[in-house]
Amino acid sequence: MAGAGSAAVSGAGTPVAGPAGRDLFAEGLLEFLQPAVQQLDTHVHAVRESQVELREQIDNLATELCRINEDQKVALDLDPYVKKLLNARRRVVLVNNILQNAQERLRRLNHSVAKETARRRAMLDSGVYPPGSPSK
Which residues contact 78 (CB under 8 A, 6 or more apart)? Predict the structure, then answer.
């Protein structure tokens, strides 16, 4: 991708060179990605909630199976099924932890992006440019 960092195109289709072009490109890219990041965050949150529900249902089922096993006059060996349920619960908890970590990283990234966007907008609005960039 030759020259991708050196020039951007304005809304009118004319190239904008230098730091202003990079800022314009970065701002456009951030605005483009923001809805996707928010949608992903919403979906991750929904999955985490459903996994908490699933974990609770597995716990309830395991408890019920243990109770049934104790109440049976005929010896039914439900222990393997209880172990399978507990193993499934462990996997659900593991996936939930992974999702929680990913969501936290996504939240921090989203916060950093919003902070950087606000900083760049403030710089553009005030006319203050970082050292080494061309003035208006």
Answer: 65, 66, 68, 69
52 neighbors 97 (Cβ within 8 angstroms) = no
Determine contact, residues 88/97, Cβ cutoff 8 Å.
no
Closest by Cα among 92, 110, 98, 100 to 38 = 110
Q: DSSP strand E in 1-136: where? A: 7-9, 15-17
Distance CA 22, CA 7 (A): 6
62-76 confidence digits (pLDDT tens): 888 888 877 876 667
**pTM of the prediction?**
0.52
